[in-house]
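Entry for the shared binder. Reason: the reviewer on the internal report wants the predicted structure included alongside the sequence.
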Amino acid sequence: MRFDIITLFPDMFAAVCQYGVSGRAHQRGQWSLHTWNPRDFTQDVHRTVDDRPFGGGPGMVMMAEPLALAIDAVRAARQQAEADIGALAPVVLLSPVGQVHRQGLASQMAASAGAIFVCGRYEGVDQRFIDTYIDQEISLGDFVLSGGELGAMVLIDSIVRLLPGVLHDAASAEQDSFNPALSGLLDSPHYTRPERWRGIETPEVLLSGHHAHIAAWRRQASLTLTARCRPDLLQAAQQRGELTRADQAVLKRIQLGDLDDADKDV
């Protein structure tokens, strides 16, 4: 998998290339990253990449031409490296108008050959570039960052960890919060040694070794936690028809106040 990043601050991406799960996978060659600075595609002595917005207003706008030339160079490099499998890599802009990033989208992108991320800065990017070059716009949520770099790193990390062999145990990703395979609910709480910490006991069922009982507890705890913290996820799962009769029974007990705490034993 290959990611190409159009950015004014390429050094920021050391965070995903050198540290943690994504860093180890990068060192093993399971994915690659290439950065491209729009300033390298300018023609003036000042290497100008932005200008005042037409119509007035605060801030500056990223100019179309340096970005377009950068994309053309990326596509030529990817073609030469045969990085694309059967299709051109999509050009993705981190943008507040974009589709909100979800676990399902991360899974889709993990099955692809990668992407070209455009990291905007200032007040935004010339709309003519967006209309001509951008295939997809993605947002992290309803808030504003100073640029697209942090958003691109978040996307890369969420995608890379789903690649085969990246995690030490593939089941870790299967149990993640928001996993479509688990109805998109929150993951259950986790416990480790010691069994008793500052007077607080680990739920007994987790020490039982009874896999069926543990699985039932985790599902119940997931439903309880999701009902308390993210009821919108439960509503979406219900609308998709993904909750079982057992799930519905647990939810009924939650509504009646019988399961207030996510760590109660089954």
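Summary line for the report: Residues 2-160 form a domain with the Alpha/beta knot fold (CATH 3.40.1280.10).
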